[in-house]
Prior knowledge:
The complex is a heterodimer. Chain A is built from eight helices and nine strands. Chain A is α/β, with parallel strands linked by helices. Chain A folds into two domains: about 5-130, no CATH class; about 140-310, CATH 2.40.50.140. In chain A, strand 3 (about 240-245) and strand 4 form a beta hairpin. In chain A, helix 1 (about 5-25) packs antiparallel against helix 2 (about 40-60), helix 1 runs parallel beside helix 4 (about 115-130) and helix 7 (about 200-210) packs across helix 8. Chain A is elongated. Chain B has one domain (about 10-305). Chain B contains 15 helices and two strands. Chain B has helices at about 10-40, 45-50, 55-70, 75-85, 90-105, 105-115, 120-145, 155-160, 175-210, 215-220, 225-235, 245-250, 255-270, 270-275, 285-305; strands at about 1-5, 10. Chain B has a two-stranded antiparallel sheet. In chain B, strand 1 (about 1-5) and strand 2 (about 10) form a beta hairpin. At the A-B interface, helix 1, helix 2, helix 4 and helix 5 of A face helix 1, helix 4, helix 8, helix 9 and helix 14 of B.
Amino acid sequence: MSSSLRPIRDLLILVLWGSAVLWLSWSGQLTNYINPSLKPYSAVSGVLLLILALFALRALLGKKSPTECCHDHHHEQEDHCDHSHSHEEEHEASSHHLCEHDHQHGNSPGFLTLGFKTLLLLLPLGIILFGNANHYTLSTIQNRGVVQDVTKLPGVRESKLPTPSPAITQPVQSVQAASNVSTTTTPTTTPDSSAMPIQVIDLLYAVQMPSYREEFEGKQVEMIGQFVPLTTGNPKGDRFQAIRLFITCCAADAKPVGVTVQYDKPLKVGEMSWVKITGTATFPLEGGKRTAILVASKVEDCPAPEEPFVQ
Amino acid sequence: MFATAWFHFSLPDFEYAFLSILLEGMPFLLGGAILSGLLEEFLPQSLMTRLLPKNPRMALLASGLLGLIIPVCDCGIVPVVRRLMSKGLPVSCGITYMLSAPIMNPLVLLSTLAAFRGQGAIEMMFLRGGLGFTVAVLIGWAVSFVAPSSILRRELLATSSGEHDHSHSDSSASLVDRLQNAAGVATRDFLDVAVFFVIGACAASFFNTAIKQEMLLPLAASPVLSIASLMALASVLSVCSTTDAFIAATFTAFPMAAKLAFLVFGPMMDFKLIFLYSAAFSKRFIIVLAIGLFVIIGLLCWRLSALNLGL
């Protein structure tokens, strides 16, 4: 691809990237990838990309691209310079001519040609359009390992667990407020009147904090999570894990957090499918360690929540 | 899907992690590029050299902090330094600024803060800035004892008398035209760097999803090996300093000292920068600089981890 085509290439990439980011933001799909608090930055960046595209279009129509050096201003040593070259060519040739222009752009190594760079820049758009990239498969969950000890999560240390409030009327909200760790998902279905809607991570906090444990223990609760079969420590075959992804910034740093669910009825659920579980929260000692086990009375498929992560 | 005992590649998972890293880091990358364009167009370059202290040591310290005022990311720093040195900026100050600016850039520090939220973000931000500044000043001080002729490329030495000090900015142009110039520089910078960010995000996603993390744990458990391996990885990934913190934060199995080494070494000496440095410095100097940075940063991070500062 000739470097003279670069202004057009730049314009197209800016428009495509800006449109893609705004579309992901507008459609709500961005929440599948990044921390919700970062969404505004992405939306603004989409707008800024389109504004840059407008400037690029103006430059293109005006035949005076700022990315191409016209150099019609005064110059003291014109005999040393060939100002007809583009920046791309100039930098690639900088090792063998005397022109020391201090351009701040186009410093890519020569092996990355403009055509190859363009393909690389189109790669994310191809994945957005044609890929199936909106959740992890079981293999990555198993590669990372399911965390059941909440103190192993980023930002949560045993010594920094929140001090429980003496009067708890609504355990879920109280735990979240006290711990400064928010769970961003609300159940998408109307809960049973007797079951308390909770999050996976609430039970993990309750394992560490006796006072909260008392609020949950023996109570009917309802939570949603993704189904992960339990292949070890499951001699009767009546257990599985309900997991959520705990993120700091984006899905790349996600850690699966999970609660063991005991359910003695036949269950036909696909790996990583979203399930709503109703049952009784228990915190037995297993292998000398306190653990959370949800003894389920009902497990049913449910749609994915609007915001799939917990933070 | 392709799997072995230690490797399990899943294309959807790779795509998911890739898009997550890209969508999260892109606004910061764009912000850096726009700032770069505005500075290029609206900041008089002579101002920088006028403001530097006359005392050589103070000038070195000031150069190390210059990135706070003139923030340039690692991809855009070499042309700026070439220009400044060709206008008479001492080589030692130029190199100090070149090494520190990609870290002492406010956007970089803020992105570090955002990326490490929940993982000692404030400590990491200050340690990254402090270590980057210290190493840059140390290298600049060492360079002050070496003749510029053994550091700079011959072409740059030939022009250091300042013939080519023209700027692309034209203060008599209309505001819209100047904004258009700034947008052109920003576009060029953004797309040039975005190519390397796409490559870096690919490598990071592959590392992040395909490699079974248990295999890396022995490496992560050794302070020396973990530091050395993440510095090597920083070189391979060649990610822009405005976004590398988001990638480093995902290496949850590694100690903070190793992540710090990744965040300080990467913006100073990665594969991409080796090419860029070649535009200004001799090959011998670049090799010595790479080895020196690897040893100094490795030793300092190892020492910091031994001090038990929560790293």
